[in-house]
Amino acid sequence: VRVSDTQLYLDGVSVSFDGFRAINNLALMVAPGELRTIIGPNGAGKTTMMDIITGKTKPDAGEVLFAGRIDLTRLDEVAIANLGIGRKFQKPTVFENLTVFENFELALKSARGAWKTLLGRLNSEALDRIAWALDTVGLETKVEDIAGSLSHGQKQWLEIGMLLVQDTQLILLDEPVAGMTDAETKQTAELILTLKGERTLVVVEHDMEFVRDLGAKVTVLHEGSVLSEGTVDHVQNDPRVIEVYLGR
Ligand code: ADP
């Protein structure tokens, strides 16, 4: 794989907090349109890795490239978001007092580039984009509902929809199915699989059944580095992974 063909490229990335190496010579290559799942025990460095990609934490060493060429280590969080890199945290953070539609509207208005000029009325292109996002995340019948009245799962989908209207190309999801019912978890897997190919997705998740349903390549982090990588079956049968999860 050539670096120029990657959507996300990390190499030799390290970061220490008070002398403790949370990320240690980390390498990761994600192709455009790929869905990648990241797993690893608590403290493995998953959150810190996401923080490095979004510019919240700056690495002490290493390369972090977007679209094979843009050096993310030199950009601040706002500039990185404006490139089309968006993160959804574990807890839903929608505007509870606004309707689903108004949430999308705000997402559009705060988005990068041309959408920034949409401070007044939404044009038909913007409405089309919202309609498409509503349909994609399965909230088309909830458009006038107050976001606070949605189920936990629906709020999570709304937030993913907000990233979609913002034209986010690299979507980072932190434990998207935590707290969801089984049915919501299945629907979330379907949603993510619909987005695969269209957007690049990096999903940190603990729920192994969900990880299996996604059927994507899995990267296992441990002590800030890649311990194992491959299919779900490959990593689950990797003796090093078994030792890290069960051998303590
Ligand atoms: P994970 O998300 O996989 O559970 P984290 O990235 O949160 O792992 O943490 C990796 C390690 O780095 C942990 O040992 C954690 O305590 C440490 N760490 C993370 N952020 C900080 C920080 N801001 N200051 C000090 N230590 C931190």
Account of the 3D structure:
The chain is built from nine helices and ten strands. With 248 residues, it is an alpha/beta fold. The chain has one domain: Rossmann fold. The strands form two sheets. The protein has a six-stranded mixed beta sheet, with helices on both faces. The protein has a four-stranded antiparallel beta sheet with strand order 2-1-4-5, covered by helices on one side. Strand 4 and strand 5 form a beta hairpin. Helix 3 runs parallel beside helix 5 and helix 4 packs antiparallel against helix 5. The model has no long low-confidence stretch (mean pLDDT 93). Adenosine-5'-diphosphate (ADP) binds next to helix 1. InterPro entries: ABC_AA/LPS_Transport (IPR051120), ABC_transporter-like_ATP-bd (IPR003439), ABC_transptr_urea_ATP-bd_UrtD (IPR017781), BCA_ABC_TP_C (IPR032823), P-loop_NTPase (IPR027417). GO terms for molecular function: ATP binding; ATP hydrolysis activity. This is Urea ABC transporter ATP-binding protein UrtD.
